[in-house]
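I'm stuck. Protein, please.
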Amino acid sequence: EDSGASLFGIRGLDQFLHIFSANSVTSSSKAFLEEKLNEINKMNKDEIKAFYLESLEKGFITSKGGAGLGLIEIARKSERPIQKEFKKIDEDNYAFYMQIDLLIDSNLENVEALIPISIGENKIIHELVIKHNIVFLYKGDFSSDVMNPILSIMRQNISETGNSVGYKIFHTAVELMQNIVRHGLEIDGRKEGIFSLNKTDNGYYVSTTNYTNSDTTDFERFVKEINKKEKEELNQLYRFFLKVNAVKEGNSAGVGLIDLRRSMMTEIDIECGSDQKGNYLMIGIEIPIK
């Protein structure tokens, strides 16, 4: 909840995969990291390899671990300087930003001329994450190959009890991600969208955004209608949809959203619109902590 809040992220931009982190460190850790990173960043590829082997052979161990062996290994993998910045939080603590830039295709011509994004851009991401209380953010392809690992991460961090907040977050995430699969605009075999989990004053907010392959007027009207209904009306509608879907093959998006609405009893936010890329759908729901 301050400038030292932790963050881990991966971004694919241009020809690079950028792996970055932010976390608070003590002044003694800052001194260690700064010295070690400055030392490593001055070395060329062969010097880094020699330094790594020497550190392994001599078995340097300090209170910070193996004399920064992890940092040396990172430098070996990236073959580029490790980007870093420190920002003072108070007398004894600093925000530590680190970024590793991995070239996606090392066989490209003139790779030396390729310039990765500055760590400053990911510092902005960090500031936005703190400002908007973002817990988890994903932008990209929503194929099952990607969705399954994301849901697996979430599943491992929740209680299996149906009444738990974690279970409700997971259940909501599954439904909204499936909504992208159902309505998402497919481009080059990919259905892209954005998934976000935010902390709120009352609980958590789960939302998705994507471009759609069809008109969303009826879908928007349906959501606004179920937002007007009371608990018992929603229960009746849910049972009706279950019977209909049991005998009729079709889109089950309706029953899933009714289930979310009756479980949380908070309104489902929806916004439809269009821009130069096409029609888009934004949908979200708050999960209250009771």
Observations:
- The first strand starts at residue 7 and ends at 13.
- Strands lie at 7-13, 16-26, 83-88, 93-103, 134-141, 186-187, 190-199, 203-211, 268-275, 278-288.
- The mean pLDDT is 86.
